[in-house]
Amino acid sequence: MCHTVPCYPEKDTARFPIQLLTMLEEKYAALDKETRKSILQGLIILRNRNRVAPLRLLLLCFTLFRVQDKELRAMVYRYIVNDIQNVNKKHKSEKINRTLQHQLYTVLEDKTNEVAAKKSLDVMVELYKYVVFRIHSISSIFYFSFNKVRK
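RE: above sequence
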């Protein structure tokens, strides 16, 4: 369905991406593995066609790091890194970068989910390599690298 959304007027399909986002935000833990993956793939298609705001989908992706699905976390990781690079390709989007850095710090400081913290640290390191995040990234990477979790 997500492939055909651009074929219809935006006023008729404006609610569809919002419904998908809301469903995934509220019920990500209860959804089947394949359903979750399919909804996320559809949202990524809609994001690539500018039908979904980048910030809302990226924030949802950080939430999906908490899911116990290794394949989904790998897909989310690749998407986050690629999308942030694309958003910052022509000029740096300070508002999006600031919000994402804050979200990264929040996930990193969360002691309840070690896998999500590790994936978020990996995102921060990868974005530092691509010169997207610079200001506080070095000290944050250093601080969280010496965390008690050694995975």
